[in-house]
Each structure stands twice: as structure tokens, then as C-alpha cells.
Amino acid sequence: MSGKEVSPEFDFTAFTELLDDRASNITMGVVLTIVAVVLTYTTVDLANLNEEVRGLVDGDNNWDVSFEIQSMTFQETIVMVDGEQRQLDFDVDQSDLPEGFRVGQIRATVSYGETSGLPADPADSVAANVLQTDMQAQWNDNNNTLSGSSNDATDIELILRTHPGFTGQSVNATGINEYQVLQPWLIEGFGTGTFSVVVELNTQSPPFLNDSDEEIVVNVEVVMFKPSATPT
Ligand SMILES: [Ca+2]
After folding, report:
1. Residues in contact with 165: Cβ distance below 8 Å, sequence separation at least 6, in sequence order
2. What is the C-alpha separation between 110 and 155, in angstroms, rounded?
3. Beta carbons within 8 Å of 11's beta carbon, 6+ residues apart
4. Cα–Cα 20 to 30 A to 181, which of 62, 203, 214, 221?
């Protein structure tokens, strides 16, 4: 057997012919190109899909959540005597809230003047505190002002945040859809129940005279909101 002989088992003639065949080469080239294009397309498509999924997971969809505001107010006028401490209770019932509204915050303003009519009577001292009740609210929020005092008859402003995160200003949010974005703003139960303010009076009298009481007005504003979301 000489080295030039090729056994029938290793007959490459057909393959050689195929490679030599220009038409077949073109066909093969086209097929390979199509496969490459399909692979590239699939890869790009998967990359886009992956990006989309990541966007949804990371909450890449941005929304603007704004609030329609309504208020419910209470007013109570009391006359207190020197040294007296009095608790005023204001009841916020779930059924008092308009449809779709939640309680965002509760503000109390304590006002008084000097009404004794005595000559040169200095303003009295008033202290006011929001008493922690079993109302569901953000009792430890840094934006709360739960106590205050005045000795020059300026108003005392108190505020309790009831719904988490509510300031009255619209906020940015991320989420897949409106439903998901609004969920944190639709929790029920915050800000309903009893809101209590404790007021204390210490009169200041002019020399040789006795100022023994004062009229104090407590205004309570229950700030209610209805959220809505628009994509940005
Ligand atoms: Ca006085």
C-alpha cells in the first residue's frame, strides 16, 4: 500500500466537492449569517428583557404622588383658673373621613390674650401638650411638636404626624403601576381615635392686683388627604 492511496473509508471527495462548489459555499455562508443574526437578535432581546425586568425589580418606573387635601376642624373655648390643668379630647371617627381620604396629620393651635381688664396686667403663661393616646400615629416622628408654651400670648402650635411620611407635599415614588405606588398611602387606621391636648394655665398678675383666670381657645385641624399618582 502506497501512501498516495486513500481508503474508501476516508473518501473526502464528496466533502471536497462540497467545499469546491461555489453555490454551496454561498448557501453555507448565508445560513451561517442567518444563524449569527438570530443569535445576536436573541442576545439583544434577552439583554433588553433583562433590563426591563431589572427596571421593574428596582422600581425604575417613576411616579409623582400628589394629595388632595381636606380639613376637619374642632374648636373649644374654655376658661381656666390659675394653676389649673385641663385635658381636652377630640374624637376622630373613621366614618368622619370622606371616601378615599386618610388622616395625614393633626394640628392644634392654642390661643389666648389678656382679658382681665386690670391695668398693666402682663400676659399669662400657658403650656400645652399633646397627650399620647392609643391613636395610631407617628408618635416618635422628628417632625412632631407635641409640647409648647407661651408667656406673651402668642399662639402655641402643636403638630402630630399620623400617616407615615405625610407632609402635605407631593412626593416621588417608584413602582410597577399606580396600584402599587399608592399602597403606602392607603393604609387605614392612622389618625382615628382620640386626640388629646392638655392645657395648663399660670396667671401673671399686675402689682397689688389678682388676675385669677383666662380664656383659652383650642383649635384642632385634622388634615386629610386623598392620594393620586401620575407617571413622570
Ligand atoms: Ca395676666
Report:
1. 171, 184
2. 6
3. none
4. 221
Distance 213 CA to ligand 1 centre (A): 8
Q: Name the residue ranges covered by the structural domains of the chain.
A: 9-58, 62-231
CA 87–ligand 1 middle distance (angstroms): 21
96 touches 72 (CB < 8 A): yes
Distance from C-alpha of 42 to C-alpha of 21, rounded to nearest angstrom:
31
Rounded Cα distance, 106 and 73, in Å: 10
Tens-place pLDDT, residues 33-88: 888 888 777 777 777 777 666 655 655 689 999 999 999 999 999 999 999 999 99
Q: How far is the CA of 156 from the centre of ligand 1 (A)?
A: 17
Using alpha carbons, select from 95, 102, 89, 116 the residue that is nearest to residue 204.
Answer: 116
The phi, psi pair for 197, rounded to 5°, reads: -120, 130
Exposed/middle/buried for residue 189 (C-beta within 10 Å: 0-12, 13-18, 19+): middle
Measured CA distances, 29 to 14, 22, 42 (Å):
18, 10, 20
Rounded to 10 deg, the angle between the 22-58 and 13-20 helix axes is 80
Closest CA to 87 of 128, 125, 138: 128
Average pLDDT, the chain: 89
Q: What CATH topology corresponds to 62-231? A: Jelly Rolls (2.60.120)
**What is the spatial distance between Cα 126 and Cα 216, in angstroms, rounded to a whole number?**
9
